[in-house]
């Protein structure tokens, strides 16, 4: 990036960025054509990776530039969309955006700003950038004059309010799992339930019996704990069910959590229940947690933390502590909605979690925050299209910014 001292107006950087991107568009133009060349899907991928990626790099910083400078980059974006679609120069820019479903640069920069803002929130709290964030987060950022560049935090807060996004405090993410590679905790996670060639596509009244046989054969004398999560547009719930103790517990979670977060939370609560009462288990020191969420079990199975780091770190820590006490905890995937009694009971309990008066305190994961940011960005683009599509012929036949079916 080109930093123009001392005022940092970003003029030199944006001018060079525009020149470089226009040069790259010549390559895109060379592989396109009406009688030969790449199809629209390939051209779009090429543009995203070769041109748009350069426009996006550092955009969270140069977004503070003047509107005139930022407007000059629209020429690059518009020309790229014309090459992708093969439209004439007279085609309205908004029609190009609506046809390709690609975000305007302004909305794209706002999304990248929010993504980076959430990344900062999940850094360790003693990082200087996070300390500065906490200091300025709840200030009034609407009082800046037109001649003053709004700082990054101020822009992020204004965007969050505009998009209706939560900017509350979060817990820092762990960068490494507490489980060392030689702990081999992943060996107790079983993703396969294929006893008699059972598959999800097989519709058979005997699947529940086959799963029950699997549990009895693979986990004899184990205490079974069923876990599940549920999500609707209004609430998120999680539950555990322990048949041998006739215990059913559910929790209402923040509506911003995803279904995967709810499933992981339920698994964590099951392990927490085992840990808090391990000294009182006289009949067995072996437990099996049964979940119908294959994605959650696959996330736990990986020692490299890629997503849902807070929950996975807690689960790994509990598994290590339980192993140190000689308690064996296995995790088994079971098919959903196949008549497995324990799974059906815990599924119903998770769906009834909305009746709880209080919700469990669970920090929003970075993956969930970015999902809501992406969703809010799409809604902003849809609102923009609803306004701009009037008077455009494409707007009469395409009312959504989603890709063509």
Can you describe this structure?
The chain is of the alpha/beta class and 405 residues long. It folds into 2 domains: 11-170 and 368-397, no CATH class; 181-363, 2-Layer Sandwich (Nucleotidyltransferase, domain 5). Helices cover 49% and strands 9% of the residues. The chain has 15 helices and 6 strands. The protein has helices spanning 11-30, 40-56, 59-62, 67-85, 93-100, 105-121, 128-136, 152-163, 207-218, 259-276, 294-301, 309-324, 341-351, 366-388, 393-397, and strands at residues 189-190, 223-231, 236-242, 247-253, 286-291, 328-333. It has a 6-stranded mixed beta sheet. Strand 2 (223-231) and strand 3 form a beta hairpin. It is elongated, with a radius of gyration of 26 Å. The two termini are 39 Å apart. The mean pLDDT is 85.
> In total, how many domains does the architecture comprise?
2
* Rg (C-alpha, Å): 26 Å
Question: Pairing-aware structural class of the strands and helices?
Answer: alpha/beta
Give the CA-CA distance, first to last residue: 39 Å
Question: How is the quaternary structure best described?
Answer: single chain
Count every beta strand, where a strand is a DSSP E run of 2 or more residues: 6
Residues in helices, as a percent range: 40-55%
Largest sheet: 6 strands, mixed
Helices and strands, in N-to-C order? Answer: HHHHHHHHEHEEEHEHHEHHH
In the predicted model, the low-confidence regions spanning at least 5 consecutive residues are none
Domain RNase H type-1: 219-355
Protein name: RNase H type-1 domain-containing protein
Organism: Rotaria magnacalcarata
InterPro entries: RNaseH-like_sf (IPR012337), RNaseH_domain (IPR002156), RNaseH_sf (IPR036397)
């Amino acid at each position: 990036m080109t930093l123009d001292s001392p005022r940092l107006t970003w003029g030199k950087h944006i001018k060079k960025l525009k020149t470089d991107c226009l040069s790259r568009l010549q390559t895109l133009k060379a592989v396109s054509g009406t009688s030969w060349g790449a199809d629209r899907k390939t051209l779009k991928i090429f543009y995203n990776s070769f041109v748009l990626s350069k426009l996006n790099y550092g955009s969270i910083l140069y977004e503070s530039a003047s509107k005139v400078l930022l407007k000059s980059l629209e020429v690059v974006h518009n020309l790229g969309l014309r090459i992708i679609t093969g439209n004439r120069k007279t085609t309205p820019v908004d029609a190009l955006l609506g046809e390709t479903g690609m975000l305007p640069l302004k909305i794209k920069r706002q999304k990248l700003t929010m993504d980076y803002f959430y990344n900062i929130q999940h850094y360790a709290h003693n990082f200087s950038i996070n300390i500065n964030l906490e200091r300025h987060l709840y200030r009034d950022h609407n009082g800046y004059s037109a001649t003053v560049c709004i700082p990054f935090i101020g822009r992020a807060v204004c965007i969050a309010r505009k998009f209706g996004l939560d900017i509350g405090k979060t817990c820092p993410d762990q960068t490494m799992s507490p489980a060392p590679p030689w702990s081999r905790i992943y060996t107790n996670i079983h993703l396969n339930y294929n006893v008699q060639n059972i598959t999800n596509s097989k519709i058979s009244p005997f699947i529940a019996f086959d799963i029950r046989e699997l549990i009895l054969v693979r986990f004899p004398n184990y205490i079974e704990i069923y876990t599940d999560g549920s999500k609707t547009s209004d609430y998120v719930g999680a539950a555990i069910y322990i048949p041998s103790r006739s215990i059913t517990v559910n929790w209402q979670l923040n509506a911003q959590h995803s279904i995967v977060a709810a499933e992981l939370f339920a698994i964590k609560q099951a392990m927490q229940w085992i840990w808090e009462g391990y000294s009182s288990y006289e009949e067995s020191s072996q437990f099996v947690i049964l979940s119908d969420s294959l994605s959650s079990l696959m996330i736990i199975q990986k020692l490299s933390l890629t997503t849902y780091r807070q929950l996975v770190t807690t689960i790994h820590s509990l598994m290590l502590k339980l192993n140190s006490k000689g308690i064996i905890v296995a995790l088994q995937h079971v098919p959903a909605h196949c008549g497995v009694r324990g799974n059906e009971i815990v599924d119903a309990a998770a769906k009834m979690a909305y009746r709880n008066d209080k919700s469990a305190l669970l920090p929003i994961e970075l993956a969930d925050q970015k999902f809501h940011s992406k969703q809010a960005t799409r809604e902003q683009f849809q609102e923009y299209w609803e306004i701009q599509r009037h008077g455009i012929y494409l707007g009469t036949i395409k009312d959504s910014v989603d890709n063509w079916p």
